[in-house]
Design goal:
Elements: H1 10-32, E1 53-57, H2 65-78, E2 82-87, H3 92-101, H4 104-107, E3 121-125, H5 126-131, H6 143-156, E4 161-166, H7 179-188, H8 193-213, H9 215-233, H10 245-250, H11 252-273, H12 278-288, E5 311-318, E6 327-333, E7 339-341, H13 347-354, H14 363-371, H15 374-382, E8 392-396, H16 402-407, E9 415-420, H17 424-431, E10 437-439, H18 442-445, E11 453-459, H19 468-478, E12 479-490, H20 495-500, E13 514-515, H21 518-527, E14 530-536, H22 545-557, H23 571-605, E15 610-617
Parallel strand pairs: 2-4, 8-9, 8-11, 9-10, 11-12
Antiparallel strand pairs: 1-3, 2-3, 5-6, 6-7, 7-13, 12-15, 14-15
Helix pairs in contact: 1-9, 6-7, 7-11, 8-9, 8-11, 22-23
């Protein structure tokens, strides 16, 4: 029995048509939502600058005074403190790229969203510039530098940043960069140029393949890609009128191929230049000269939660998070089920293994991950809605204050303070994400903060601490009678922990030192005068089981060759890392699909990989 030769393959064209069609419609709808500055009469060059505003422009961009005044009036009327101005003649591919990244209808209100713009002109208040430690004096920046600045400024005006088309503003030169300039602009926006170039080239190859092999279906998919700039930007009512629209549409496949190749080459060249910082590598070599055994205490013979000596090894793993030397053991108590690091890290070991993860070399990546947890932050904040209307809230283990920033959308009148060991809590204070930032150990601060808060939260914090019971004691001191303690933890009883073994991400070695089952935590809270009023498992699930397993496995097979604590990178180590990453791409795609199904199942069965408890401190 024979089958029509293309009956199955046509689905590729159908999927491409659906994806490109959806992207085209989405871009057109977002374009329609772009605000446009009102056209104001020309003004003389002698008009004084409105007090409190500065206009930062890229090299070669010269806004007229009318545009500046219109931007100031618009920003003040909308309550904005940062406004990115889009030239009306913005290059077609730049415009499409921006519309892929930004939904204008939601951009301002996404408190954790990345700051985005065109890279030509940004209006900002002097107050924001001062808090962000930005000197507006200096030479004019390149577009990439201005894109990075816009990204930073939004952190200091998280719900007061917008963008608008400025009809009187011109790009002043070629607006569609290629090669090093495009790679630099992608990096400035926190996007990986190498991966995006590979995806662009792969997509072009796929479109070429279906156009040749799949007849009308393939030609339709390729044609839709070809015409997309004009379909999105060519309407008579478009607020953007790219000067290169006809050229960009006619030559799109060729220009896209050239841009992808040049960007890929620039990304590879930049990768070769990104050698580990010499001073940082030297410091790590000095730390590692005496070995890693000194970073571990002696193994304890009993459970730190209940005192039982019925212990068994749950998992042994190296550091899969950063690839630093060392091997770590988690043991499980046979009586209470508590899982803990044994032997645990010393304080010196904690400093060594945390270094360059949440700040320093890994700070930007960690910030990006935390910035994408908005739905989880909102769920945590909303858990309290039926129980209290707090005036004061202390977030312990706040990091850079991402939760506090997001929670303001749910609790706009609540004062949020944060506490953490790292320098990020000071940055959270400067950004305005927390009112007051306390840097140090929670048990040490507890006597000074006794009875001052109506809510204390510990979201994915207790598992990092050396003595979680002492942290609960501190919370009982800091809370006023009738106050609430909110806790979220990984669930060591999750089925996925058994299925994935050492590749289960929430083991998170060597940072996680204690993973307590929910029953243990409920009992400990009761012993300290708390009553649990709400408990959630499915809603607390973090959809990263399979994706995390692929990431940890890839890191285990081929660690980052440029890590400053590792051996010097070689051509072979770079090639191996590149090959593993390439081979992992389809695994990541499959893992993302599985995580979507797993998350849906967790919501329905209330059996996720984490849980939340909300407990009230009893009066008296």
């Amino acid at each position: 029995m024979t089958h029509p030769p293309l009956s199955g393959v046509r689905w590729t064209s159908a999927v491409l048509l659906a994806a490109l069609g959806a992207g085209t419609v989405r871009a057109a709808l977002r374009l329609r939502d772009l605000p446009v500055l009102p056209v104001v009469p020309p003004t003389s060059a002698g008009v004084p600058r409105p007090a409190g505003w500065r206009l930062l422009t890229a090299r070669g961009v010269e806004p007229d005074p009318a545009t500046f005044l219109a931007a100031c009036a618009y920003a003040e009327g909308e309550g904005l403190r940062v406004l990115d101005l889009l030239p009306a003649d913005l290059a077609a591919e730049r415009a499409l790229g921006l519309l892929r990244l930004v939904d204008p209808a939601r951009y301002r209100w996404d408190r954790l969203g990345e700051g985005r713009g065109a890279g030509f002109a940004v209006l900002v208040t002097e107050e924001v510039l001062e808090r962000a430690a930005v000197d507006p004096g200096g030479p004019r920046p390149a577009p990439a530098e201005l894109l990075a600045l816009t990204r930073r400024l939004k952190e200091y005006a998280s719900d007061a940043t917008g963008l608008a088309v400025a009809p009187g503003l011109s790009c002043a030169g070629p607006g569609d960069p290629g090669g090093p300039a495009r790679a630099a602009e992608l990096r400035a926006q926190g996007l990986p140029p190498g991966a995006l170039a590979a995806a662009q080239l792969g997509g072009l190859a796929l479109l070429a393949g279906v156009a040749v092999r799949q007849g009308r279906w393939g030609a339709a998919a390729a044609g839709l890609y070809w015409l997309q700039p004009y379909l999105v930007l060519g309407g008579s009512g478009s607020p953007l009128r790219p000067a290169d629209l006809a050229r960009a549409t006619a030559a799109r496949p060729v220009r896209s191929l050239r841009a992808g190749l040049r960007t890929a080459g620039a990304a590879r060249a930049a990768g070769r230049d990104d050698a580990p910082d010499g001073a940082r590598a030297a410091a790590y070599r000095e730390d590692l000269a005496a070995g890693t055994d000194r970073f571990l205490e002696a193994r304890r013979p009993d459970c730190p939660w209940c005192g039982s000596v019925r212990l068994s090894v749950r998992v042994r793993v190296p550091d899969l998070l950063q690839g630093k030397p060392g091997r770590f053991t988690l043991e499980r108590c046979g009586d209470c089920g508590h899982v803990f690091q044994n032997p645990r890290l010393t304080t010196e070991g904690l400093e060594f293994y945390y270094r360059d993860f949440y700040d320093g070399r890994g700070g930007e990546g960690a910030g990006t991950v935390f910035g994408r947890l908005g739905a989880a932050y909102r769920g945590r904040a909303e858990m309290l809605l039926p129980h209290a209307d707090p005036v004061s809230w202390l977030d312990v283990g706040t990091g850079h204050g991402h939760f506090c920033n997001a929670a303001r959308a749910v609790w706009p009148r609540t004062r949020f303070d944060g506490l953490d060991m790292g320098d990020g809590v000071r940055e959270a204070e400067r950004r305005g994400w927390v009112e007051t930032g306390y840097q140090g150990q929670f048990p040490e601060f507890a006597p000074k903060l006794a009875g001052q808060y109506e809510v204390v939260s510990m979201y994915h914090y207790l598992e990092h601490t050396r003595d979680p019971l002492a942290e609960l004691d501190a919370a009982a001191v800091v809370l006023a009678p009738g106050g609430f303690l909110a806790i979220e933890l990984p669930d060591p009883e999750s089925r996925m922990a058994r299925l994935l073994g050492s590749a289960w991400l929430p083991w998170f070695q060597p940072q996680h030192q204690h993973l307590a089952p929910a029953a243990n935590l409920r009992e400990a809270l009761a012993d300290r005068g708390f009553t649990v009023v709400a408990e959630e498992h499915g809603p607390a699930h973090q959809g990263n089981d399979f994706f995390g397993a692929v990431a940890l496995t890839a890191a285990r097979l081929a660690p980052d060759p440029d890590r400053p604590w590792g051996p010097p990178a070689t051509r072979r180590s770079r090639a191996l890392a590149g090959a593993v990453r390439l081979a992992a791409l389809p695994c990541f795609a499959a893992a993302a699909a599985l995580d979507t199904l797993r998350t849906a199942a967790a919501r329905r069965t209330d059996g996720g990989n984490a849980y939340r408890l909300l407990a009230r401190k009893d009066a008296g």
